[in-house]
Amino acid sequence: MPAEAAQPVAIPADLWQRPEMLHALRNRDIGHLFRLVRQFAGVSPTRIGVAVGLSQGKVSEIMKGSVQVTSLDVFERVADGLRMPDAARMSLGLAPHVVTGVPVPRTPILAGDGTPTSALPSVEQVAVGPRQQDAPQDVDVLTLAWIVGRLDAHVDRRTMLILAAGMTAEAAASIADPWERLTRALSGPQALDEDTVERLEARTIGFHRLEYTLPARSIYQGLTSHINELSSLLQSSPPDRFRRRLAATAGEAATLASWLAWDLQQPAQSASFDRVSALAAKESGHSVIQACTYAYKSYAVEGKAALQLVRQAQQFIPAQGDDATRAWLLSREAEELAALGDRYAVQLLHQAEEVYSGARPHRERAWTRFLDPGRMAAFQLSTYIQLGDERHVIDAGQAALSSIAQDAHPKRAVVVYTDVAQAQFQLGDITEGLTYARRALESAQRSESTWALQHLATIEKTLAAHKDQAARELLGDLISTRRTLGSSPA
């Protein structure tokens, strides 16, 4: 091998901005990308192969189009070997490198998605309030959701925030072509294609992922714009091979929109999106969409009403498949039974763990991406606290806290920190209880979540029973936060 073949590949920065390169990146066409690198940077197939860890023969096959790259590992090697800038990596559907000094926004990220002028789903007359005039136009939420939805690996909160921090108007413009193409598909005579459907499916997944991390108000308007585009395509009489897929992804998006509307204290809009999801479930033949709708609704109420909604949700799970949703609902049923003092909850937890062991949450449904070992530990913690099982509380608490340290999703953090605080109070350790209750409140403030505040309310009575200064101050801060963010509409 010639000595120069081992030298790092130097690619002019402007090559990554060329329209044909952007097209290759967005379509994950590595063959086209390699040809452009050879044409404009003068890099031979041999040098490309050394840089990206492929043989010269394999690179030639990829350049000819006889071999297609589909593996995430190879995409990463190509990006690293060619030293792609972060904008190019994101166009390829990869996370940017975590660079020391990249600012993470301290304030909630607001939507700047350029809402289409067409009406929202007319079949349900869903209305969306006007955007605040002073809202910073920093983030193209539609594009951000598409990128996050395409990422194949788990996306933690820091990665999402770094993506969002870099998603300025200028950066978004460089990868906005998917939405220009979608606009043409909506307004022009050309037929709907596989590429457009896949982009819409990825964007729905991305919105569900963003919900774990960003406040509801940051993504709600972008999500309703996404649903509007799906609605327009469905009304255009697409071919049968696409219609069911579009209906399914519309239903998955509508269930999330209903949940966010409830979180934003807009119950009428939440109910409208519930009806949309029911129609989409019927049209697509995916009844499990209704299971997600009822599961979300179960978080808005308490006691027997919540348990009834969970059991209604279970009726929509098919006999085979959708194991992640099944594990989620078994865990929710265990939580609600434990709250009623029913020890059968322990058996349901064991069933949930067994089902989860065979599930593929990252591949099953847009909404199941949240379910991982840390979330399962959080379900166990909540259940065992309700049952007063101190031995299992300690083990489940440690596992749940470990998951918080790994991803720091604020909505999950509220649940875990609240439950750990409650456990510490039950064990008589007031100091530790106050520490975790304070962390829960801080996470609730970051998430701006009605559901998070509702969960945190479970320790208000405990705090009210303690007369020391720290407990009184924390209780006052909690009440103040509730007044600022608004009380639960449930």
Walkthrough of the structure:
Helix 14 runs antiparallel to helix 15. With 490 residues, the chain is mainly α. The chain has 26 helices and no strands. The radius of gyration is 24 Å and the shape is globular. It starts with 18 loop residues before the first helix and ends in a 5-residue tail after the last helix. It has helices at 19-26, 30-41, 45-52, 56-64, 72-81, 86-91, 141-150, 157-166, 169-174, 177-187, 194-213, 216-235, 240-263, 267-284, 288-298, 303-314, 323-339, 344-357, 361-364, 373-387, 390-407, 410-427, 430-447, 450-456, 460-464, 469-485.
Helix and strand layout, with pairings?
Elements: H1 19-26, H2 30-41, H3 45-52, H4 56-64, H5 72-81, H6 86-91, H7 141-150, H8 157-166, H9 169-174, H10 177-187, H11 194-213, H12 216-235, H13 240-263, H14 267-284, H15 288-298, H16 303-314, H17 323-339, H18 344-357, H19 361-364, H20 373-387, H21 390-407, H22 410-427, H23 430-447, H24 450-456, H25 460-464, H26 469-485
Helix pairs in contact: 1-2, 2-4, 3-4, 3-5, 7-11, 11-12, 11-13, 12-13, 13-14, 13-15, 14-15, 15-16, 16-17, 17-18, 17-20, 18-20, 20-21, 20-22, 21-22, 22-23, 22-24, 23-26
Principal-axes geometry comes out as globular
- As a percent range, the share of strand residues is under 5%
Reading the helices and strands in chain order gives: HHHHHHHHHHHHHHHHHHHHHHHHHH
What Rg, in angstroms, do the CA atoms define?
A: 24 Å
Structural class: mainly alpha
- End-to-end separation in angstroms reads 70 Å
The tally of helices reads 26
Task: Extract low-pLDDT stretches.
Answer: 1-5, 98-138, 166-190
DSSP helix fraction: 55-70%
**DSSP E strands, number:** 0
Main beta sheet, described?
A: none
- Mean pLDDT, to the nearest integer, reads 77
